[in-house]
Design brief:
- The chain is of the alpha/beta class.
- The protein folds into two domains: 4-98 and 215-268, Rossmann fold, CATH 3.40.50.1860; 102-213, Rossmann fold, CATH 3.40.50.
- Helices cover 46% and strands 16% of the residues.
- The protein is built from 13 helices and ten strands.
- The protein has helices at residues 13-23, 45-61, 72-77, 79-90, 100-104, 122-127, 129-137, 151-156, 163-179, 197-202, 213-227, 229-232, 249-260, and strands spanning 4-8, 29-33, 66-69, 95-97, 115-120, 142-147, 185-188, 209-211, 241-245, 266-268.
- The chain has a six-stranded parallel β-sheet, with helices on both faces. A four-stranded parallel β-sheet has the order 6-5-7-8, with helices on both faces.
- Strand 7 (185-188), helix 10 (197-202) and strand 8 form a beta-alpha-beta unit.
- Helix 1 packs across helix 11 (213-227) and helix 2 runs parallel beside helix 4 (79-90).
- The longest helix is centred in the N-terminal third of the chain and has 17 residues, at 45-61.
Length: 272
């Protein structure tokens, strides 16, 4: 097998994998969730880089010629170093891609007011990766970063549909609009957050758009494979879906179903 590797620190990357499978179902996919060390969002650059590199190395060992970091924190804190420093040593023919750049390339197209908000983990907001990347493609676009640290634990504990989630969703949406009432586009820059989409929309003024990353990343990947046949032809196409977790498979299978939308049977791997 030479599957597309999809990595996340936990479960959120499964929302990206879902859209990849829906849009590009012919390929084999291998998903790795580093649940034993999640969340990454509040960890240092050095720790996120070290953990992400270990996961990338393992995916390369499984034969993945293309790896998607379906984790905004890993994309913000580790991707560039891995691309520029480590890949030449590990496998010069392999490619590792993230979720920030493809999103930054198009997000400004959705805003009419020229003001957007980026809702993310503390680590992604702290990195300023979105502001830096968006400025390259849409100079002058106003970006309001908003860290939402409680959203991931609410989702992973299956509390995102309950009243407790309403408080935190309403609070952060209100804070964004207080900072810039012209914001007309909210980017969910954490792959967990699409599970809160309906609640977020409840607290937004009419006409404010909410963007999840899955569709953007899937479209970008399809374009990438069309432009890079040297990678595309190496990918196997048996429609296999394989799932690994660094933590309990029982817990992973139960929670992964929420994110992936169908039953998952995972295997355990110990990276330490």
């Amino acid at each position: 097998m030479s599957p597309i590797g999809v990595f996340d620190s936990g479960y959120g990357g499964l929302t990206v994998l879902r859209t990849l499978v829906d849009r590009l179902p012919q390929y084999d996919y291998l998903y790795l969730g580093d649940n034993a060390r999640a969340p990454y969002g509040n960890r240092s650059f050095e720790t996120v880089y070290r953990y992400t590199l270990q996961c990338v190395e393992w995916l390369l060992q499984q034969g993945c010629p293309l790896i998607i970091l379906a984790c905004n924190t890993a994309s913000a804190k580790a991707l560039r170093s891995i691309q520029q420093t480590d890949l030449a040593r590990l496998d010069p023919r392999a490619r590792v891609l993230g979720v920030i750049r493809p999103t930054a390339e198009v997000v400004g197209n959705y805003s009419e007011s020229g003001a957007i908000a980026v809702l993310a983990t503390h680590g992604t907001v702290q990195s300023k990766s979105y502001e830096i990347e968006i400025e390259k493609f849409f100079p002058g676009l106003s970006v309001v970063p908003e860290a939402c640290p409680m959203w991931v634990p609410l989702i992973e504990n299956n509390e995102h549909g309950g009243p407790g989630a309403d408080y935190f969703v309403k609070r952060h949406v209100a804070h964004v609009l207080e900072q810039n009432p012209e914001v007309d586009t909210l980017l969910l820059a954490c792959t967990h957050y699409p599970l809160l989409l309906d609640k977020i929309k409840q607290y937004l003024p009419e006409g404010v758009r909410v963007l999840a990353q899955g569709d953007i990343v899937a479209e970008s990947l399809q374009d990438y494979l069309n432009r890079h046949p040297e990678i595309e032809t190496r990918l196997t196409k048996e429609k296999d879906r394989i799932f690994y977790t660094t933590d309990s498979t029982e817990d992973f299978n139960r929670k992964a179903t929420i994110f992936f939308g169908e039953e998952v049977a995972s295997k355990h791997v110990d990276l330490r």
